[in-house]
């Protein structure tokens, strides 16, 4: 499992007046894919938090290529860009059901100590699982 793809059917409430999916909803779609990626790796935010680790967003770079229109189903592809250090970087592609590229994204999270809010290394089990992807 180095790349996974999830399918999402955007809701009408996620559109703007023109029937186009509002750009802010892309962040929700990215998170859905990231949660599924973690689950398939055998981890979750709950497991990380129980181990004293938080994963706040450090950077998001989204390039919007084509709009997602209401009624289109989309596929969100996610993969780990590099081995985690104190940061973990993901690459995403969002494609509509016609195969048109709608957006690409790089998203960086920082492993953070839940008590001190200082950057830290990932938990060893997570790092080991990620190393097996490369």
TrEMBL record:
Which SUPFAM superfamilies does the record match to this protein? Thioesterase/thiol ester dehydrase-isomerase
Superkingdom is: Bacteria
What CDD domains does its record include?
4HBT
Sorted UniProt keywords: Hydrolase
Q: Example GO molecular function term?
A: fatty acyl-CoA hydrolase activity
Q: Which residues form a coiled coil?
A: none
InterPro entries listed in its UniProt record:
4-hydroxybenzoyl-CoA_TE, HotDog_dom_sf, YbgC/YbaW
Q: Which Pfam families match?
A: 4HBT_2
| Membership in a protein family | Belongs to the 4-hydroxybenzoyl-CoA thioesterase family.
Entry protein name: Acyl-CoA thioester hydrolase
């Amino acid at each position: 499992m180095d790349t996974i793809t999830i399918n999402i059917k955007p809701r009408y409430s996620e559109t703007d007046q023109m029937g186009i999916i509002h750009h802010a909803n892309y962040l929700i779609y990215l998170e859905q894919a990231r949660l599924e990626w973690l689950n398939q790796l055998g981890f979750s935010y709950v497991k990380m938090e129980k181990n004293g680790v938080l994963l706040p967003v450090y950077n998001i770079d989204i390039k919007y290529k084509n709009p997602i229109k209401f009624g289109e189903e989309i596929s969100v592809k996610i993969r780990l860009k590099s081995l985690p250090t104190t940061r973990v970087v993901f690459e995403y592609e969002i494609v509509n059901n016609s195969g048109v590229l709608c957006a690409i994204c790089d998203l960086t999270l920082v492993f953070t100590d839940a008590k001190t809010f200082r950057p830290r290394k990932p938990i060893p089990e997570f790092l080991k699982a990620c190393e097996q992807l490369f």
